[in-house]
Each structure stands twice: as C-alpha cells, then as structure tokens.
Design goal:
This protein is mainly alpha-helical. Helix content is 79%, strand content 0%. The longest helix has 80 residues. It is rod-shaped and about 185 Å long.
Length: 196
C-alpha cells in the first residue's frame, strides 16, 4: 500500500496527456474523414459527369451509325420503287435500276432488272409475231380479193357463154351433150379466162 500511495498521483499527468492526445487524434480523424467524404463526393460527381459524357458520345455515335445503315437500305429501295413507278407510268421496258451492291436490296434490284429484261424480250417477240401475223393476214386478204375478182370474171364469162348458147341457133339443133365440148362443136367458143 505504501507503493500505491507513492505512485497514486503520478498517473494523473499521463492520463490527462493521453486524453488530450486522444481528443487531438479524434479531431484529426474527423478532419481526414470529412476530407475523404468530400473527395469521394467530388470524385463521384466527376465520375457521373464522365459517364454522362460517354453515354452522350455513344448515343450520338449510335444515331450516326443507324442513320448511315438506314440510308444504305432506304436509298436503294427508293431507287427501286422509283424505277417501278416510272416503268408502270411510261411502259418503258428499257429502264433498269442498276444496283451494284451485293446485299439483299441489291440482289432484289438485280433480279428485278433481269425480270424486266425478260419481259421486254417476250414483248418484243410477241410484237414480231403479231407483225408477221398481220403481214400474213394482209397477204391472205390480197389473195382473197384476187380470187374474188377471178371468180367474178369467170362467173361473168360463164354467164355470157350460157346466154350465148341459149340464144344460138346451133345450140338448138345439136344434142345437149355436144354443146360444151372442147373441140368447138356445140355453142359458141368459150371466152378466155383472164389470168393474173
């Protein structure tokens, strides 16, 4: 106990120093924590701003790419549609789309061009056949008219011969079987048949 009494007052200075040091350390830790929180909030704000900027750039790039892709599809389709409408309105089968791309739209346009070329060939062949038929029909009509003229002339000649035979005194004296003989016995000689 004597040692306790001798030492009892000595730890007061150390305790108050530790308490003061602990308070100072607590203040420093509070300042460090506040600074860290402020830095963290600042960094988070910077990160948010950076992410927003990257998102805007990515969206703009995406819109630009989308626009280019959409134009690469819609322009050939509009060209194909324009050619189809022009062919329908003008009946001009020589028009072509002339697509050069190898994508689906380009292959469709090439197939359309081939189809129009085939239709133009068929129409051309049909026109040639129709012209040949019209020429043949005209030739047949001309031949028919000539046959009709010849038939009319023959009919008139036969009527004249029949009329002459019925009026001829020779035809009344001869038997009926000798009237139209080719050797000239019977009625009047036959009228020559005109030839064309």
């Amino acid at each position: 106990q004597a040692v306790d009494k001798a030492v009892r007052g000595m730890d007061r200075d150390a305790n108050s120093a530790i308490d003061a040091l602990s308070k100072e350390l607590g203040k420093v830790l509070d300042e460090v924590q506040a600074t860290a929180i402020a830095d963290g909030q600042s960094n988070a704000a910077k990160a948010r701003n950076f992410i927003a900027l990257v998102a805007v750039v990515v969206l703009a790039f995406g819109f630009a790419i989308s626009f280019v892709v959409i134009r690469s599809i819609t322009r050939p389709l509009a060209n194909l549609q324009g050619t189809i409408v022009h062919i329908e309105q003008s009946n001009n089968l020589t028009l072509r789309v002339g697509a050069t791309s190898q994508d689906e739209v380009g292959r469709t346009a090439a197939a359309f061009d081939q189809m129009i070329a085939t239709i133009a060939t068929v129409v051309g062949d049909t026109r040639k056949s129709a012209d040949a038929i019209a020429t043949a029909a005209q030739a047949m009509a001309t031949a028919g008219a000539e046959v009709e003229k010849s038939s009319g002339a023959q009919s008139e000649a036969a009527s004249a011969v029949a009329a002459a035979c019925s009026l001829s005194p020779i035809s009344r004296r001869r038997p009926a079987r000798s009237r139209n003989r080719p050797d000239g016995h019977g009625c009047l000689p036959r009228a020559p048949i005109p030839r064309r």
